[in-house]
């Protein structure tokens, strides 16, 4: 390795990997943004939703030999149910708090995260697991001398497709319109016969399904263990806040920025400091725009 | 000031004095080192949570990054002691002052942020601090610092044979943090903070210097937490970044206040008295299996208390206090 090791080629290579990872970060984070936009609640168990999705993908592979790529829709469906149930069992009651509402939401979802981690340890043991052989695992594709790992590439494409689908869903379907209406005025929608609780439950289901999709793909190239969510949760919060809380498009843009910044930081700083770049960019952005890049003022 | 308020404050002071006296007698009956350990940690977290409560409870600026100040207190003390031979007492004060200055320096840009943007900024800055200390070779990087043992002495604030001096220091710190809160509650600062928390725009228009009062709360809060960090470093005689600056400390400072009653005088002490022994006991009795049962119990309790008692455990004791809280929370 000479001084010219950081050539244009290497920079393009790491930007390309950063972009792929960034699209995945966007997909992890968008569920958080969706739920926040809908009802002003930050789900502090979001990372644990990701962890559950990874385990579901792992077990579908281990017991039924379904490749993670095929099982991704199943994982998303399972997480949809899970998210809706969590809303009905816990979050619905947190919304009723008359005092300290913000605190109650933070700590009830945070307590939930701890319970989920404990349950994962109890049932799945703290062991690190991985999916040894999958269609995509370990394969790379070369485009013009730039090597792209196939799982990340597919993940990025799924992320783009998911965002496109979500856009269509919110703007073109009845449920999407109900979602938008409820977010704008939960009191008024009740008058036209929309059940607020049902919309919220479906919103939680949808948010969880999106992070489920991300988890299914990440199960191919990340270790799966009970605490895995914690390492991605903070990145997801920063991604959402960077884009602006509540903005679905902001989460997409935020994800790409976070992925690129992480890749660039890894080029100039020791690998152990790569997150510092993300955090510094977050602080810089909110100091200039206190509501994130695309948040409403 | 109306009479009932003055009477309540006098009553609070008397209750605190009685509780402190009873706590001071506890070592006469508790000889078991394991139990003494739990008592020390409980007092320490009560003090930390009481300090956190000043900024996050009274002033309403929810910080989940106070681990930064805890770590700075610990590192200032041990770096000065091991590299320059400065006595821990000076390191402790130095750490407190540095933490307060950093809190004000950070407050300058941070206090423009609202809600979740502020909370995430506090998490992120503590995380940056953690990563920097993990990569700072001179400060021992991820390996940390082992405090050299020079024999039991109050001068060097280290004791190998007995835990009692640590117990009394933790008790003193807890009393100090409580007394500072008690005193500030009735000062102009206390009124400013409540005004800032309830409605910053209205407070500003009434002449409260919103920005300065947030800065004051941040400085007092960070100073006391750093003293706690210095204590913890001497108590363990070993520190590394993860074990004094990790995110779990930010949470363990917030949780007692939240469960006990955020923004109340007694919330943090009450919360710590229940939460910390429970954490330690579940960890040693059912956590040993390594199967996460302790986490399940602990997490479920946090969910249950925050849903059932949004104003914390203190609301069980005093109806009038709970009413005041509702008034405050709903403006």
Automatic annotation (TrEMBL), chain B:
<feature type="transmembrane region" description="Helical">
    <location>
        <begin position="296"/>
        <end position="317"/>
    </location>
</feature>
<dbReference type="InterPro" id="IPR043428">
    <property type="entry name" value="LivM-like"/>
</dbReference>
<feature type="transmembrane region" description="Helical">
    <location>
        <begin position="117"/>
        <end position="133"/>
    </location>
</feature>
<keyword id="KW-0472">Membrane</keyword>
<feature type="transmembrane region" description="Helical">
    <location>
        <begin position="251"/>
        <end position="276"/>
    </location>
</feature>
<keyword id="KW-1003">Cell membrane</keyword>
<protein>
    <submittedName>
        <fullName>Amino acid ABC transporter permease</fullName>
    </submittedName>
</protein>
<dbReference type="GO" id="GO:0005886">
    <property type="term" value="C:plasma membrane"/>
</dbReference>
<feature type="transmembrane region" description="Helical">
    <location>
        <begin position="87"/>
        <end position="111"/>
    </location>
</feature>
<feature type="transmembrane region" description="Helical">
    <location>
        <begin position="166"/>
        <end position="184"/>
    </location>
</feature>
<feature type="transmembrane region" description="Helical">
    <location>
        <begin position="54"/>
        <end position="75"/>
    </location>
</feature>
<dbReference type="GO" id="GO:0015658">
    <property type="term" value="F:branched-chain amino acid transmembrane transporter activity"/>
</dbReference>
<dbReference type="Pfam" id="PF02653">
    <property type="entry name" value="BPD_transp_2"/>
</dbReference>
<keyword id="KW-0812">Transmembrane</keyword>
<feature type="transmembrane region" description="Helical">
    <location>
        <begin position="215"/>
        <end position="239"/>
    </location>
</feature>
<dbReference type="InterPro" id="IPR001851">
    <property type="entry name" value="ABC_transp_permease"/>
</dbReference>
<keyword id="KW-1133">Transmembrane helix</keyword>
């Amino acid at each position: 390795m000479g001084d010219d090791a950081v050539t244009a080629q290497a920079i393009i290579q790491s930007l390309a990997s950063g972009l792929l990872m960034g699209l995945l970060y966007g997909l992890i984070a968008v569920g958080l943004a969706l739920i926040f936009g809908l009802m002003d609640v930050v789900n502090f168990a979001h990372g644990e939703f990701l962890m559950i999705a990874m385990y579901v993908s792992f077990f579908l592979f281990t017991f039924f030999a379904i490749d993670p790529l095929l099982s991704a829709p199943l994982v998303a469906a399972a997480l949809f149910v899970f998210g809706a149930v969590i809303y009905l069992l816990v979050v619905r009651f947190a919304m009723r708090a008359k005092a300290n509402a913000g605190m109650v939401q933070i700590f009830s979802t945070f307590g939930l995260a701890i319970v989920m981690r404990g349950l994962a340890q109890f049932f799945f043991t703290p062991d690190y697991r991985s999916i040894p052989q999958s269609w995509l695992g370990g394969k790379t594709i070369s485009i013009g001398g730039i090597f792209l790992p196939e799982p990340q590439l597919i993940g990025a494409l799924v992320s783009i497709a998911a965002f496109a689908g979500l856009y269509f869903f919110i703007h073109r379907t009845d449920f999407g319109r109900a979602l938008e209406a409820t977010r704008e005025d939960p009191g008024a929608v009740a008058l036209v016969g929309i059940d607020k609780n049902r919309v919220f439950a479906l919103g939680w289901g949808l948010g969880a399904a999106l992070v489920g999709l991300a988890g299914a793909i990440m199960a191919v190239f990340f270790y799966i263990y009970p605490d895995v969510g914690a390492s991605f949760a903070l990145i997801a919060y920063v991604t959402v806040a960077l884009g602006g809380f509540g903005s679905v498009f902001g989460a997409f843009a935020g994800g790409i920025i976070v992925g690129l910044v992480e890749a660039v930081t890894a080029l100039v700083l020791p690998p152990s400091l790569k997150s510092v770049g993300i955090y510094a960019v977050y602080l810089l952005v909110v100091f200039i725009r206190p509501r994130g890049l695309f948040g409403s003022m | 000031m109306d009479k009932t308020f003055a009477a309540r404050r006098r009553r609070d002071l008397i209750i605190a004095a009685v509780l402190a006296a009873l706590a001071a007698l506890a070592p006469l009956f508790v000889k078991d080192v394991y139990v003494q350990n739990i008592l020390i940690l409980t007092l320490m977290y009560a003090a930390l949570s009481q300090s956190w409560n000043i900024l996050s409870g009274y002033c309403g600026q929810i910080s989940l990054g106070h681990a930064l100040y805890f770590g700075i207190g610990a590192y200032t003390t041990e770096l000065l002691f091991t590299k320059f031979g400065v006595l821990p007492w000076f390191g402790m004060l130095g750490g407190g002052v540095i933490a307060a200055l950093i809190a004000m320096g950070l407050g300058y840009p941070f206090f423009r942020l609202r809600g979740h943007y502020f909370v995430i900024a506090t998490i992120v800055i503590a995380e940056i601090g953690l990563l920097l200390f993990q990569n700072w070779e001179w400060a021992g990087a991820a390996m940390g610092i082992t405090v050299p043992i020079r024999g039991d002495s109050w001068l060097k604030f280290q004791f190998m044979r007995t835990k009692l001096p640590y117990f009394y220091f933790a008790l003193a710190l807890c009393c100090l943090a409580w007394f500072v809160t008690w005193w500030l509650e009735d000062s102009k600062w206390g009124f400013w903070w409540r005004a800032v928390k309830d409605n910053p725009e209205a407070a500003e228009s009434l002449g409260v210097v919103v920005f300065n009062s947030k800065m004051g709360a941040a400085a007092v809060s960070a100073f006391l937490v750093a003293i706690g960090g210095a204590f913890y470093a001497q108590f363990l005689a070993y520190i590394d970044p993860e074990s004094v600056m990790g995110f779990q400390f930010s949470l363990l400072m917030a949780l007692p206040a939240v469960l006990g009653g955020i923004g109340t005088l007694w919330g943090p002490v009450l919360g710590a008295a229940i939460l910390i022994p429970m954490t330690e006991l579940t960890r040693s009795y059912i956590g040993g299996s390594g199967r996460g049962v302790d986490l399940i119990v602990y997490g479920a309790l946090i969910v249950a208390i925050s849903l059932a008692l949004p104003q914390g455990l203190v609301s069980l004791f005093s109806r009038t206090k709970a009413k005041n809280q509702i008034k405050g929370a709903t403006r």
